[in-house]
Model the fold of this input.
Amino acid sequence: LAQDPLWLKCRQQSPPRPTVPRREELSAMIQKGTVSISRRKARKAYFTAPSHIRRKLMSSQLSKELRTKYNVRSVPIRRDDEVQIVRGHYKDREGKVIQVYRKKWCIHIERVTRDKANGQTVPFPIHPSKVVITKLKLDKDRKALLERKSTAGKKGKHSEKET
Done:
């Protein structure tokens, strides 16, 4: 088989198989030894996260205009924000957030509903990663958050003139 020219030709053309790094190699890549790389532990931490951590995990991107205005990419979503849906069946629909349902990892948007079999209309759940915030509900805490996040991006070794 090794002397067969066709087999040798096929062997030379096929790219080498990618190797999956072993656990020891992965742990050498990680900065902190306290952070786990286990998929099982990451999923458990995500799905059993308490409400105050789910708030941060349920963040949405800002629209292009808001991103340039505040110099911030994403913020945790809250009630009364105006959003645009960018994925799924309700794509390109806009509306105000009427509820952030942290327990079910979703948000409800006004006029995004579906009819049940008995004729009742219920809000359709949308994941916050599938929307873009087009208008923020600003209060003093939200303004402080935006200020903090925008100044955090400016810290670093290089100034804008150097880059």
Summary: DSSP finds six helices and eight strands in the chain. The beta strands are 59-62, 74-76, 82-85, 94-101, 106-109, 113-115, 121-123, 131-135. The longest strand covers residues 94-101.
